[in-house]
Write a structure and sequence with these properties.
Elements lengths: L6 E6 L6 E7 L12 E4 L5 E5 L2 E5 L4 E4 L9 E7 L2 E6 L4 E5 L2 E4 L11 E6 L5 E5 L4 E4 L4 E4 L10 E6 L5 E5 L2 E8 L2 E5 L12 E6 L5 E6 L4 E5 L4 E4 L7 E8 L2 E6 L5 E5 L4 E8 L7 E6 L5 E5 L3 E5 L3 E5 L8 E5 L1
Parallel strand pairs: 2-30, 3-31
Antiparallel strand pairs: 1-2, 1-26, 3-4, 4-31, 5-6, 7-8, 8-9, 9-10, 11-12, 12-13, 13-14, 15-16, 16-17, 17-18, 19-20, 20-21, 21-22, 23-24, 24-25, 25-26, 27-28, 28-29, 29-30
């Protein structure tokens, strides 16, 4: 194993910084063709990577590709962890679960959606919510699958992101703004939050709730990052007003890592101090070409890069897994 020590400097407009070191670990390079897009670290300590060639499971040493047993697309679009069950949404609308090393199709009488699955979650009442790109929302109440689309008042059926709040509210981000959705007594509820008028017709790319559920971070494609205070319905624009936001990962309620469409740059944002710091690297073999980021329950930061592979980082270190470098087909990563 070859280990190289590099450094990362956290910088901002103020004169302070933080250094991290990199450990390179050599693993298999078979992921070159898998077009990664999402990274996620599971409770079992495995890292899962969504790719166009299937679900990739990585144990820190080696990886294996988990494929469907039907003729459908193996391109994974979304991952969701529900206790020890990993839900997988596919490009063709299929939904599978992965438990105890078994990939199993989620069977429902109505059948799967016919559009890419962009997000899956379970709310506090136990309802399963499914966001699609093209067919709006689906809700499953353990008996019936319901659809929410434009006829129900959805601004757009192209949904990029979705988040469940602690109080049970569901917010969805579309290419025409943000909406609040609900389902009670078999009735579909579609609301426009008081703060949503400022984001009218914006492409909402990311929604992230604070841990206490009192605030909602809203990432947009053209107008940067916003903070919605759900107690006062105030919407505040952050210093990242000129960025196209592609991901938001909380470290603490007042600290987060932000990914933009600038694939060479991550940002650290401290909301209490209202300071945005760029995270830059040096000494790498090539540019980062960041694909996806994820912060796990241990506050470790996982970074999936097109040219530099899989990276894990904490307050003390960042690891570069060079065996997953030059990746062309991985879609995302989850752990």
């Amino acid at each position: 194993m070859n280990v190289h020590i590099l450094w990362i400097l956290l910088f901002s407009t103020t004169v302070f910084g933080q250094q991290y070191h990199f450990n390179h670990h050599e693993i298999s390079t078979d992921l070159v063709r898998s077009n990664p897009s999402v990274v996620y670290r599971h409770k079992t300590d495995f890292v899962f990577i969504a790719s166009s060639e299937g679900l990739l499971k990585y144990d820190g040493i080696k990886h294996k590709v988990i494929l469907r047993n039907d003729s459908g697309s193996n391109k994974v679009r979304s991952l969701f962890q529900d206790n020890h069950t990993l839900w997988i949404g596919y490009e063709d609308g299929a939904i599978y679960t992965y438990v105890n090393d078994m990939l199993t199709p989620w069977v429902i009488p109505e059948g799967w959606p016919n559009a890419p699955i962009t997000s899956i979650l379970r709310d506090i009442s136990g309802l399963i919510w499914i966001a699609t790109y093209g067919e709006g929302l689906y809700i499953y109440d353990n008996k019936t699958l319901y659809n929410i689309d434009a006829d129900d008042g959805l601004l757009s059926t192209d949904i990029y992101t979705m988040v469940a709040m602690k109080d049970g509210r569901i917010f969805v981000g579309t290419d025409a703004g943000i909406q609040e959705c609900g389902f009670k007594n078999n009735q579909k509820l579609i609301l426009s939050p008081a703060f949503s008028s400022a984001l009218k017709n914006d492409i909402i790319t990311v929604l992230q709730s604070t841990h206490d559920g009192s605030k909602l971070y809203v990432g947009t494609y053209e107008h940067g990052l916003w903070l919605a205070d759900l107690r006062t319905n105030h919407l505040i624009q952050t210093p990242l007003s000129n960025q196209n936001i592609t991901d938001i990962q909380l470290l603490l309620d007042d600290e987060m890592i932000i990914q933009t469409d600038n694939k060479q740059q991550l940002f650290h944002y401290n909301t209490n101090q209202n300071i945005v710091s760029g995270i830059s690297t040096s000494g790498l073999e090539s540019d980062l070409s960041i694909i996806d980021i994820f912060v796990d329950v241990e506050a470790s930061i996982w970074i999936l890069c097109r040219n530099n592979g899989l990276v894990s980082a904490s307050a003390n270190f960042i690891k570069f897994y060079t065996g997953i470098k030059d990746i062309q087909t991985i879609q995302s990563i989850k752990a």
